[in-house]
Amino acid sequence: MSANLPPAAREPSSLEQALKQFFGYDSFRPGQRQIVEDALHNRDLLIVMPTGGGKSLCFQLPALLKPGLTVVVSPLIALMQDQVEALRNNGIGASFLNSTLSWQAELRVKEAILNGRVKLLYVAPERLLSEKFQPFLEQVDSEIGINAFAIDECHCVSEWGHDFRPEYRQLQTLRRRYPKVPVMALTATATARVRTDITQQLALRQPVTHVASFNRPNLYYEVRPKHRQSYSELLQIVRSAGGSGIVYCLSRKKVDELAFRLQNSKISALPYHAGMSDEERSVNQTRFIRDDAQVMVATIAFGMGINKPDVRFVVHYDLPRNLESYYQESGRAGRDGEPAKCTLFFSYGDLKTIEYIIDQKPDPQEQRIARQQLRRTIDYAEGTDCRRTIQLSYFGEQFPGNCGNCDNCRYPKPVEDWTVEAQKFLSCVARSGERFGVTHIIDVLRGSKNQKIQQYDHQQLSTYGIGKDRSEDDWKTLARTLLHQGLLDETSDGYRVLKLNERSWEVMRKQRTVFVARTVTETATRTERSLRSAEVEMLFDRLRALRKEIADEQSVPPYVVFHDSTLRLMAQQRPQTLDEFGQLNGVGHYKVAQYGERFVAEIRAHCQEQGSAAAVAGASAGPARSAGRGGANSARPELGGEGENFPSHTQQLTLELLRKGCSPAEIAQKRQLSPNTILEHLTQLIEMNQPVDLNQLVPSERQEVILQAIETVGADSLKPIFEYLGESCSYDEIKLVRAWVRSGNDPLGF
Ligand code: ADP
Ligand code: ZN
């Protein structure tokens, strides 16, 4: 508690000071300050903020500044415990009452409340409303005073929301019983319909409504086509993330398969789905929250009520149900405001599965809504506009685009003129009598000999086989684009027969041009660059280990000790005294006292070992040294440049260890990665012209013979080189030398 704080800190003169004192933050997030002020004026409030917007602080800070107790209603036990843990870790008196407590424990909590030692009490709605609980609540109100009811996840009162809970409806009895106590309702659900419902159902009195923007600037959004290599792309995302992540799949079976596959790739991944026992699920969840496992592979059952702020990536390996779910699920990334990545793998095959599920729905109205929602998801996935513009328009929010933090803005897709292909496709629709769907038209164009073709004698059509030069996927993309751009229609009677419209004929008459956006995903991966320096990363990892150690000692999740953003500041600024340490954003008074010594000691130790003073904070990985061979490669761009090829975080760590003299095998062991992964890092680093000393990896005589072999048989594939050398060099050595050649070092120059 605040008892051991200096008197000045106990009476903060401004809200900012209070924010720093209790939570360690330097400034309010957008909206927070106004909300806190309104709450201090005892207004009813309706707060709509996206996940990670910082809703909790809106009732937590007023709770600390007002006399009495704030009662927080929360439907999710895990979330309650989490918030209480986090508050206590800031030295704030907070408790919860729910079904997990023994009666003795409950008694202790009640005692603490009546003694005024608790400022925030978290309760589940059914407990709060039960008759048995009422006398206690009344006693609290008369002895201590209830200063506010905060109703978290308040969309649960609405049938229009995605998570209706009937018991939430009863909450308005609180209003009747305690007419003077202000009510603050909070949600991340955006639609206007739900908002009106909340005000009515909770009987809010002229609430001040705060609707924050739903834009999450720290999230990078991307969509990738799903194909055979998607798994390696997923691995790449996981390995370069440098933190936790969630991978969503549609079915339990896929969850199990993918978790298993990741485990085989040496990733600590765990499954989570409704087919597992409650216990298994809760064990896995805890391991994920505590950073004992890096990846949670889950059906959508996972995530509600997870408060983990440092999720660095969310991958949808299958198509999400609709755009709102996608927004909410991907929004579980980066709640701490640090950069995080949201990837959607999209395939038309998944689309079919979902369409099939929709077809099974008995109610045609429901089917229609589901189809419409699916359409919006496809629009998002196929869209070439800024992903934010598409998402936010779904919530009725205008966004100007050019966000610079989505794939479409960073790597605008080249569009190609496919008018001729479109003409072929459309005339094929016309010639077959507008009686078929996409698949059959493609079969005709590609000259298939299947039964349906024979049955309709379609090998006689003039368009039969004229589209062999394009793949099935190309034609599918074109068909989607045509439908998308309204250049072709499709019946919605469940048969999806293609029909021509006025615009289709304009295309065929050459009055209209058709542009198709082509997806280019690998470039996005490869050119992704990080400006973090290897040295900062090393300290960051070290501090992370310390954080984990402390968290385990106290049995709390690591982020309760410090957030990633705060660790990063430590790594960059390297505070050497407790005073400096206390200045960091995210470090409050209580945490300086609690953890300051250990973190400062770790930082000092690191600086000593690195022989670097605090002043070099943020410096790059050191002077660029020429790669191996006789300095021939000395003219390389400096590290951290804006060049396209900048190593990822994980590659930088590998490089750092190599430069300390570790062999690839040692690096693999130290980093708990496979030797192959390290080799891959090394070849890529060499290709990126990073300061890798080739002599350290391949003896110079072998470099010479491999170079000769490459001159003779070319560098396109490895096998011919390997065979040319009579198997005297290993594939790994060949790969390394080849990478060196590819980095622009012409072997003929020697
Ligand atoms: P929500 O409930 O809206 O999803 P939280 O209340 O959990 O969001 O806050 C998200 C994260 O942001 C938390 O980790 C919280 O500690 C952090 N946070 C909240 N307000 C601030 C602030 N003013 N400055 C820095 N971090 C903040
Ligand atoms: Zn964008």
Q: Which residues sit in consecutive blocks of at least 5 with pLDDT less than 50?
A: 1-12, 520-532, 613-644, 746-750
Q: Which oligomerization state do the chains in this entry correspond to?
A: single chain
The helix-and-strand class reads: alpha/beta
Fraction of residues in helices? Answer: 40-55%
For the largest beta-sheet, the strand count, sense and barrel status come to: 7 strands, parallel
> What is the alpha-carbon Rg in Å?
30 Å
Structure ligands: adenosine-5'-diphosphate, zinc ion
Number of strands: 17
Q: Give the end-to-end Cα distance, rounded to a whole number of Å.
A: 72 Å
Q: What is the global morphology?
A: flat
The number of helical segments is 36
Strand proportion: 5-15%
Mean pLDDT: 84
Strand order of the largest sheet: 3-4-2-5-6-1-7
Question: What key phrases describe this protein's structure?
Answer:
binds adenosine-5'-diphosphate; seven-stranded parallel beta sheet; alpha/beta; 750 residues; 17 strands; six-stranded parallel beta sheet; single chain; disordered N terminus; 48% helix; binds zinc ion
Account of the protein in words:
With 750 residues, this protein is α/β, with parallel strands linked by helices. The chain has 36 helices and 17 strands. The strands form four sheets. It has a seven-stranded parallel beta sheet with strand order 3-4-2-5-6-1-7, with helices on both faces. Strands 8-13-12-9-11-10 form a six-stranded parallel beta sheet, sandwiched between helices. Strands 14-17 form a two-stranded antiparallel sheet. Helix 3 runs parallel beside helix 4 and helix 32 packs across helix 33. The N and C termini lie far apart (72 Å). The N terminus and C terminus are likely disordered. Bound molecules: adenosine-5'-diphosphate and zinc ion.
